[in-house]
Design brief:
single chain, mainly alpha, 37% helix, 0% strand, globular
């Protein structure tokens, strides 16, 4: 049992919290889902900007584990050629 007179530890800020907003324990799953949806939206926007016209992401890992997620060999080649330009990847 903790000592009630001891100071409470500072609450950690969730990585997706905006502008220093502290999230309560119950907020994390909702925020995580919102962050996941935003990330997937950003993935699809980036795919379009890279010319991946037949790619659509619905989960953040990019695996084809769900029916709605799709890509083509042509888009994967475009992605690989562009990734080759990054020394961190190549």
């Amino acid at each position: 049992m903790s000592d009630p007179s001891s100071p409470k530890p500072a609450r950690e800020k969730h990585p997706t919290a905006k502008h220093g907003h502290e999230l309560g324990d119950g907020d994390l799953s909702v925020t995580d889902e919102a962050a996941k949806a935003k990330f997937i939206s950003l993935m699809n926007s980036k795919a379009r900007s890279m010319g991946l016209t037949s790619t659509h992401y619905v989960e953040p890992a990019g695996y084809d584990t769900v029916k709605e997620q799709r890509t083509t060999a042509r888009d994967m080649l475009k992605l690989a050629l562009q990734a080759n330009g990054y020394h961190e990847i190549a």
